[in-house]
Amino acid sequence: MKNNREHAAQREPEAPGCDMPATAMPEALTEGHRATRERVARSILDHGPSSAADLAGRLGLTSAAVRRHLDGLTAAGLVESREQRVYGSRGRGRPAKVFALTDGGRDAFHQAYDQLAADALRWISEAAGGGEAGGQAVAAFARARLAEQGRKYRGAVEQADAQQRAEALARALSDDGYAATVRRVPTAGSAPAAPAGAQLCQHHCPVAHIAEQFPQLCEAETEVFSQLLGTHVQRLATIAHGDGVCTTYVPASGAAPSSSRTPGAVPPAGTSPNETGSTARRNLA
Questions:
Q1: What's phi and psi for 236, nearest 5 deg?
Q2: Which of 1, 22, 98, 193 is most buried when burial is the number of CB atoms within 10 A of its CB?
Q3: Angle formed by the axes of helices 52-59 and 63-75, to 10°?
């Protein structure tokens, strides 16, 4: 019975998703088999790193069928396996294995998703009347979307010590494909022994192409970071504006922002994005 259900799921084409590149399917596959494999990849894209059991449950396939598709996606360089990151105490036994899309796997979806997202945000803006009202409507959507993402990260961040919350947020972001790291930097005007601030660096942005057109996405993300970390933060650079890394300055606990342009300090209000991007790149060098 189980095998029949598995074979039926692989024979019948599902709703078409984004076409995977030719290199994604090196072996000869039936149309239904290819469609199911694309569903597996799309589910990882939509839900983040997932175990074979998670994928089987979401897609109504057997674990054996999912593993075969994962093997094919891994061989094509579109999916990679890793140990599941566990926040807090971990029980006995080996960590579960989860599967995440590689950069090449995400690129297979970006073009179609980017156009859909851009069209949707443009419709929201026009439906609100365009102009300033349209911009505010897009901002409201961005805040709602990022707030949901923030709720997903809140538990991991709040469990961390106050001085390690930026690192906890970076780990949570990395699990969602942002390849985030933290660099500790001197706080402007502080004594050498004072706690350092931090630069939260996101080396990949899944929505960079959309944020070029709708900067409200970056602004909403910065607001969420501030809420999660419990302090004012300031965006120094964004991939959407042409910088190599999205960089957010997080001051040390209790530190007051300074207008002095020392390395790692929060830049003064009104500084242009290009200038702050250059500063961030110098600090990261």
A1: -95, -30
A2: 98
A3: 120
Spell out the per-residue pLDDT of the chain, length 285, in tens.
444 444 443 333 333 233 333 333 344 456 778 888 889 988 887 777 889 999 999 999 999 999 999 999 999 899 999 886 654 455 555 667 899 888 788 777 666 667 888 899 999 999 999 999 999 999 999 999 999 989 999 999 999 988 899 999 999 998 887 889 999 887 655 555 566 789 999 988 878 888 999 999 999 999 999 999 999 999 999 988 888 889 999 998 755 544 333 333 333 333 333 333 333 333 333
Spacing of C-alpha 39 from chain mean position = 20
Which pTM does this prediction carry?
0.55
What stretches of 48-180 show up as alpha helix (H) in DSSP?
52-59, 63-75, 103-127, 131-159, 165-175
Phi/psi of residue 126, nearest 5 degrees: -70, -35
Integer Cα distance of 250 and 269 in angstroms: 16
Domain 2-101 -> CATH class: mainly alpha
Whether 102 and 76 have beta carbons less than 8 Å apart is answered as: no
- Listing DSSP states for 164-221 in one string gives GHHHHHHHHHHHTT--EEEEEEPPTT--TTSPPEEEEEES--TTHHHHHH-THHHHHH
Amino acid at 255: A
Spatial neighbors of 69 by CB under 8 A, at least 6 apart, are: 36, 37, 40
Closest CA to 27 of 64, 99, 76: 76
Nearest partner of 233 among 277, 267, 274, 189, judged by Cα: 267
Query: Domains of the chain: which residue ranges?
Result: 2-101, 109-284
